[in-house]
Amino acid sequence: DAGVTQSPTHLIKTRGQQVTLRCSPISGHKSVSWYQQVLGQGPQFIFQYYEKEERGRGNFPDRFSARQFPNYSSELNVNALLLGDSALYLCASKLGVGNEQFFGPGTRLTVL
Amino acid sequence: GENVEQHPSTLSVQEGDSAVIKCTYSDSASNYFPWYKQELGKGPQLIIDIRSNVGEKKDQRIAVTLNKTAKHFSLHITETQPEDSAVYFCAASRVTGGGNKLTFGTGTQLKVEL
Asked: What was the pLDDT predicted at A37?
């Protein structure tokens, strides 16, 4: 079975631009979470969606938004990019609300 | 909110030795504690987890222990091999009907030397 997939793999943007990152969960998984991992640190929680509803939001500004589609895939949008948004963005999926989370390979975002 | 501290930040062991990584958490309501292994250029891989109603869990060379009273949990790797070299993260979560966000530690760079 395919694991969590994310696209694109790498992305380079300039300050002020907007970016959309995509995630497809493991088949059958209905919950998707997004995390930001800055180099040398642990992942930081951004959003969690379950059955297309937001179930949690981390301490990130309103420039960050997300949504989950009927097929359970998800998009993370970041507006007005800052240099500090440069990071690895990870998507994790899980079967239900309280089960194990499995991570994708991430999207490496570089903001110049 | 939850805060997770992880030690050591780097750990170097000889092949065949054991490795221990320790984490403490602050929220007594946390009830789920996974450990992830992250290799260079990859996403974190779940290697073992433990729930608060269990004190110890073992899977081949990997074991995790949990002390709810002291609010700390540890990862034990026995008979280490070069392929165990990676960054290991602990995490804590309160699993509720509303979901569960993982709060991660800062990671431990494990190096297994030949």
From this structure: 97
pLDDT of residue B83: 96
Strand B4-7 relative to strand B19-25, pairing: antiparallel
Which tokens hold the place of A47?
């959003």
Strand pairing report for A31-37 and A87-94: antiparallel
- Contact yes or no for A14/A111 (Cβ under 8 A): yes
Which residue among A45, A100, A104 places its CB closest to the CB of B43? A104
Report CA dihedral (A12, B103, A30, A99) to the nearest 10 degrees. Answer: 140
B3 in contact with A at a CB cutoff of 8 Å? Answer: no
d(CA A73, CA A48): 12
**DSSP 8-state secondary structure symbol assigned to residue A41:** S
In this prediction, residue A102 carries a pLDDT of 95
Residues in B closer than 8 angstroms to A33, CB to CB, are 101-102
* pLDDT of B99 over the 80 cut: no
How many residues can be counted in chain B?
Answer: 114
Single-letter residue type at A42: G
Distance in angstroms (rounded) separating the CA atoms of residues B87 and B9: 9
Q: Are B99 and A31 a contacting pair at CB < 8 A?
A: yes
